[in-house]
Design goal:
Layout: E1 11-15, H1 26-36, E2 43-47, H2 50-57, E3 66-69, H3 86-92, E4 96-99, H4 102-105, H5 117-130, E5 133-138, H6 142-146, H7 150-161, E6 171-175, H8 189-207, H9 209-213, E7 215-219, H10 224-231, E8 238-241, H11 248-255
Parallel strand pairs: 1-2, 1-8, 2-3, 3-4, 4-5, 5-6, 6-7, 7-8
Helix pairs in contact: 1-11, 5-7, 7-8, 10-11
The structure holds 2-phosphoglycolic acid.
Length: 260
């Protein structure tokens, strides 16, 4: 049975990608001031570059703005020059980590890292072992959407990226159509609703009540002007926000859609 999406506390997570140095953290101070004035019915996390995780986690935001990383290695430690382990992120103060973002799944020749769902699954396991909560990303390319393969692609990514040990407390899914990321384009309400319903069904079938209670975020060109419309779609339990999370005014405009 599928739990009504309304009972699931939404999460709005920012993804700064490879943007921001220490000076940029002032945007989060501004965000914190803005958030203090209202009551929100959602959790808020910001996934910053690894270099900022410790600094963000020691800013006095309490549980209001949680800290996240953007990737972790699948191994706990070892000879992996330049990589960051889940334990290290946790030690630096992170509570969350994004895993399997399409910019990491993208081919190396396109500036990505060619990550497969099998590797993403190892990273999810590493995050779980370290006690981090994972935001696991799935989503189709424009070519896959055009050829009618969206549900098949997303279903396979989901199946292969998630270990059998997922609970609603430690895993969040983010549906991010690759063609909607940073492009200003968003799928229609019906298209998003269909993919989220498909994900919910797959999660519930595999994980039972835990799957019914798992948060499914939408990501891809979320902005203050479309946040309310997106959050009203069934089985959309929050947003993963890239570009618009870099400015306090835009990010708080999106969080504002969840004002109580
Ligand atoms: P965007 O990015 O909001 O800039 O489209 C979303 C993401 O990649 O997580």
């Amino acid at each position: 049975m599928t739990a009504p999406a309304k009972k699931i506390k939404p999460l709005v997570a920012g993804n700064w990608k490879m943007n921001g140095t220490g000076a940029h953290l002032r945007e989060l101070r501004r965000l914190n001031t803005g958030l203090s004035k209202h009551k929100f019915g959602c959790d808020v996390a910001v996934c910053v570059p690894a270099t900022l995780v410790h600094r963000l986690s020691t800013m006095k935001f309490g549980a209001k703005i949680m800290t996240g990383g953007q990737d972790c290695h699948g191994a706990q430690k070892g000879a992996h020059t330049g990589d960051v382990s889940a334990d290290m992120l946790k030690d630096a103060g992170a509570k969350w980590v994004i895993v399997g973002h399409s910019e990491r799944r993208a081919e190396v020749k396109r500036g990505g890292h060619g990550e497969t769902s099998k590797l993403v699954r190892e990273k999810v396991l590493a995050a779980q072992m370290a006690g981090l909560r994972g935001i696991v990303c799935v989503g189709e390319t424009l070519a896959e959407r055009k050829s009618g393969d969206t549900l098949k692609v997303v279903g396979a990514q989901l199946r292969q990226s998630l270990p059998d040990t997922c609970s609603a407390g430690d895993i969040v899914i983010a549906y991010e159509p690759v063609w909607a990321i940073g492009s200003g384009l968003t799928p229609s309400v019906e298209q998003i609703g269909a993919v989220h319903a498909h994900i919910r069904k797959a999660l519930t079938r595999r994980f039972g009540d835990a799957g019914a209670a798992m948060r499914i975020l939408y990501g891809g060109s979320v902005k203050p002007s479309n946040a309310a419309e997106l959050m009203a779609i069934a089985n959309v339990n929050g947003a993963l926000v890239g570009g618009a999370s870099l400015k306090a005014a835009d990010f708080s405009g999106i969080i504002g859609a969840y004002r109580r």
